[in-house]
Design a protein that fits this description.
transport, cell inner membrane, 11 helices, two-stranded antiparallel ribbon, ABC transporter involved in vitamin B12 uptake, BtuC, 307 residues, ABC_transp_permease, membrane
């Protein structure tokens, strides 16, 4: 029974981290699916969302506003607005001017933007870790008092529910809305979509904005879960989310979701049964193993070259 509880505890921890990886990974996979480029500044947009939420929470506390639902709602709105604006600016500054050129040029531009955003936050907020207030506390415990107890915290439940709502809303938006249908058309053939009257620049900007908004949600959730943020907060999470997107199949939204969950569970199981020092080794080994047998990822489709 104790072994089962311990396994379930690691599974819950993995699903918690994997859910946030999936939210961030969607930004990578949507941009790649639309324009075939990797937005390496996406991790920093997620980090900016976490910092914005922290500043909003601190400001509301200074004003004496302490009702948690209202504080979370305002912090989320502020984080989404700032991150979405940053994502839109990144597309206009770092991608649109070099779109259509050799793929190496936008890649260098994205890496440069990532370094710029990292250093900007470093100068504005300092390099030290900043504590993130635990607004959602408490949870449930299962198991005897004299044995291992499995815990499920309210913040973990919040992460599960929020991720499910965001994923469902995104799926409905892509499948049923006018902009969503335009996104699918642009991802299939950008040139033809342009000829048919679709404003491709607007659709590409909307893709960056949607990905940045989801990253902001993940930034708020992970900030509360880990309890601190720093200027490198986005680099590591962005790298893991990119790995999740590749694992599930870059360009596939369901693949990004699946890849994030698999990566989170692999990290949690490795930390629980081996050591936290090996979690990255196991995760990237799993990625290499899957790509050896399925180069396009778990749910990715091979590109068909048009003649």
């Amino acid at each position: 029974m104790q072994d089962l509880l311990y396994f379930c505890q690691q599974l819950i921890n993995g699903l918690t981290i994997g859910s946030t990886y999936a939210l961030i990974a969607i930004g990578y996979t949507m941009v790649y699916g639309i324009i075939g480029m990797i937005n390496f500044a996406h991790g920093e947009i997620y980090m900016i969302g976490a910092y914005t939420a922290l500043i909003a929470i601190t400001g509301l506390a200074t004003l004496g506003i302490a009702w948690v639902p209202l504080v979370l709602l305002i912090a989320l709105i502020c984080a989404v607005i700032v991150s979405s604006s940053t994502g839109w600016a990144v597309e206009r500054v770092a991608y649109r001017p070099v779109r259509g050129r050799h793929r190496l040029i936008p890649l260098i531009s994205a890496i440069g933007m990532s370094i710029f955003l990292q250093n900007y936050v470093h100068l504005a907020q300092g390099s030290r870790n900043i504590g993130f207030p635990a607004l959602i506390e408490g949870g449930f415990r299962f198991g005897g008092e004299d044995s291992f107890q499995m815990s499920v915290s309210w913040i973990q439940i919040t992460i599960f529910v929020t991720t499910f709502v965001c994923m469902t809303a995104l799926s409905l938006f892509i499948s049923r809305s006018r902009i969503g249908r335009a996104c699918r058309a642009v991802s299939q053939d950008l040139g033809m979509a342009n000829l048919l009257g679709i404003d491709t620049n607007r659709i590409i900007s909307a893709t960056f904005v949607i990905g940045a908004a989801l990253a902001a949600v993940a930034g708020l959730l992970l900030g509360m879960y880990y309890g601190s943020v720093d200027p490198l907060f986005g680099f590591i999470a962005g790298l893991k989310a990119f790995t999740a997107a590749v694992l599930g199949g870059i360009g596939s939204i369901p693949g990004a979701m699946l890849g994030g969950l698999i990566l989170g569970i692999a990290e949690a199981m490795t930390s629980g049964y081996l050591s936290g020092e090996y979690k990255d080794v196991i995760s990237f080994s799993l990625l290499i193993l899957i790509l050896l047998f399925k180069p396009t990822g778990l749910l990715g489709k091979p590109e068909v070259e048009k003649i």
